[in-house]
Amino acid sequence: MSISMNSERTPVSTDVYRYPFTPYPTGWYLLTESASLAPGDVMPLRYFGRDFVLFRTAGGKPVLLDAHCPHIGAHLGYGGTVEGEGIRCPFHSWRFDSSGRVDDIPYKTTPGLPDAGMACWPVEEVSGLVLVHFSEVGTAPSWHVPERSEWGAPGWVGYETRSWNVRVHVQDLTENIPDTTHFVSVHGLRAIPEAKVTIDDHVYRQVMGDDTYALRHNVYGLGLAWLDVDAPLKYRFLVASTPIDEQYVDMRLLFLIHEGDGATELSAKGRSIIELISKNTSLDVVIWGHKVYRDRPPLVAGDGPIGVMRKWARQFYETASAPS
Ligand code: FES
Ligand SMILES: [Fe+2]
């Protein structure tokens, strides 16, 4: 077998990190649904190669802290308890406020408290979603994720959620949207849809189709991509992609289905849309799990606006190693 000298060689090992840039671009990512986090709930989480504790205070505020206690290192997600607006460590009962600072040590015999605490991450709650703003270098959020009017509105049912653990980078997941030709070859669409793209700072907007049947994408950074479909059955879904570590992404599809007046449950039709999209997503998951990243792909006329998306995506890389 001969290999043409100008073909790009595939990296040999698949166990090493496959991308020429950080696995953790800056932006908003889904932690959990609001409904899964009642006041007093404590949840251990592992994302961005780090350990966190997520809790909801008695007053209802979601708080995300680095997981490990500054005292002797217990993980507050395993046995920590919410007390008012703070959380108490399961090991020696130090209490931390909602900014992660220690504010009570019950057995301390002298006055005053040490200057100790856990890092506190920016969290916002938007339309039933608990989101974190992640920046490796600690940059404060410069933009926010808008509410979805459909969530909780009469006639809309959801979220109905499906999830996958995908061995991929969030940028490759997002590239699924401008990669219009794969909609035919992987997902069985009859014709390659034309994609009209508008870049709006941190939002990538893409419309495929026409007034009778259109797929409208609104992509907020590399973690949150909404798709709106107004077919005979109206539905929306969010593709929420949160990096777990250098290899894996927690990818969730959260569906909102318009079932009409008074509906509180999914119809058979609504259910079948969700199952169809989930089946199609599973086809992508196999490809993503084994692909490599091509820094300079030989795109041809007919390929979708992948280059446009890559250029837009550069803004989410704050460290030296950004995609070219
Ligand atoms: S390890 Fe948390 S209070 Fe000691
Ligand atoms: Fe796809």
Radius of gyration: 22 Å
Strand content: 25-35%
Stretches where pLDDT is under 50 for at least 5 consecutive residues are 1-5
How many E-type strands? Answer: 18
SS element count, helices: 4
Measured between the Cα atoms of the first and last residue, the distance is 32 Å
**Which distinct ligands sit in these coordinates?**
FE2/S2 (inorganic) cluster, fe (ii) ion
Question: Structural class, please?
Answer: mainly beta
What's the number of structural domains? Answer: 2
CATH class category of the largest domain: Alpha Beta
Secondary structure: helix percent: 10-25%
Shape: globular
Please identify which CATH superfamily of the largest domain we are dealing with. Naphthalene 1,2-dioxygenase Alpha Subunit, Chain A, domain 1
